[in-house]
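Hi Prof. W.,

I finally got the HAD-IG family 5'-nucleotidase prediction working! I wasn't sure whether to trim anything, so I left the full sequence exactly as given:
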Amino acid sequence: MAPTLSPFRPIPGGPLQDPLHGSFRSPLNRARAESATRRAHDLLADEGLARLLTLPRERRDLVPRAREVFVNRNLRMSSVELIGFDMDYTLAIYHMRRLEQLSFDMTLAKLVSEYHYPPVVGSLLYDHHFVMRGLAVDRVNGNILKMDRFGHVGRAYHGLRPLKPEVWRELYRNKRVRLRNPQFAWNDTLFALPETCLFAGIIELLESLGHRVDYGKLYDDIREAIDTVHRDNSLKREVRKDLGRYVFLDPELGPALHKLRSGGKRLFLLTNSAWDYTDAVMKYLLDGQLAEYPSWRNYFDVVVTAAGKPGFFTEARPFLELDASTEEGRVVGEATSLDRGKVYSGGNLARFEELTGYRGENILYVGDHIYGDILKSKKSSLWRTCMVVQEIEDEITYTDSRQEEIGTLSQVEVVRERLDDEVNHHKTLLNTLERRLEREPLSAEDRAATEELRKQTKFELDRMRRALKDANDIADTLEQDVEEGFNPYWGLLFKEGNENSRFGYQVEQYACLYTSRVSNFLHHSPMQYYRSPRDKMPHEQAGALSAALSPMGGEGPPKGAGKD
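And this is what came out:
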């Protein structure tokens, strides 16, 4: 039997002569480490090198923070040989409010004319404030939810009204929402925003008129109607009539693609859009931007349309060669190679890697859709990924404009944390003093001193309790004001309460890089080494020196790789 351990002695395995949990006193090659330490001192003391590293580079326009490329996982562009792009919401950035309004109106008309919803439904108005990416629909209870990274619901609406607190607590407070459950539908694409608004708006309208709503059927009807609007190309036909109204013309897009090609990268287009729409949009975006590229197709070594993502990453459909001289893109036959200057449809990941000769981490794919472009490619391959999140520009620009309030909030949060700790400390001290006065035989002098200390401690405790209550109210009010200033219903896109939102969590888990638009790559070298800060565990954030071993992240598999 081991002797009883004293609570005042170090835990076995700590820094003793013979630690139980492993040795940290006998490195295998100490001489080599000592040599490296001497070389480190020489490197850090090299004044000539220090001057070279501090000399200003050639002046270039500063990149606005909202236009930066952000890094979740280190990525060496020098190792990337092939870069692919989605089109919709990636190369083609849409004027969101205009396109959402068009999709909303066309879907609403279809619900009334073909699904026989009451004509009054056709008078609904689109509220762009009520929608953002990363919301979930509860198809059973008719609610819209926003979750944090743990799957806990932070905000919930029924119709256009906040869910009653008692209902919210009963349904979601002590439960995690698991999106695999068919009860929930995850709306993570910009295309899905109108359907969320329709779902809430129709519930609000019909229930206010006394109608009973079958929430599951309503969602399915909206989903089918909006899919039809996209699938039958009626929406895209309207967009093609006035591309300048719906598609943002980015003058930096062509130069950004050219810079990547000049750095030795081959480029490919992989889009779910059909050939006729792809050709029209890409002509609008790129034709005539640079003299070296008379046609948009000159930018790309491989062009694949109607790719059927996410099935492209998991299924085994063949590549079909199309006749690009015709608008409809007549099928010529099954492709046995992927050649520059030709156009293809369908296909699959394994065959793509086989025909191009590139695979795994030599390929970077840039897209906007968490599931179809990012998550599925991460689970099916080792392709590196970059997600385009155009809303970043709005969120960063907005939070920059609220810098003073956010700074004040941050200071109050620190004070609140300190007050909370001190209140607990003073409560413990006060209890100790009161027990001493009640139970210990004290001399008159000691009793008077202890009583005086008790009074002083209680006075300080009461003062700090009042300050803590005030700090809590200030912090909650300021946080609500900042969040609702961005979106009055849902707050910030990437945050939910003190945590990352579910959407922000998925961007972090599955995208190596993320940025607001493809043209942001223009501001970086095609050989750029994108570095992320290393994740730190709480004990490292608290000061453990293992946090200083390396401040930069690694190039290992992404956090979400291999998850179900």
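The CA atoms of residues 191 and 203 lie 21 Å apart. Does that look reasonable to you?

Thanks,
D.
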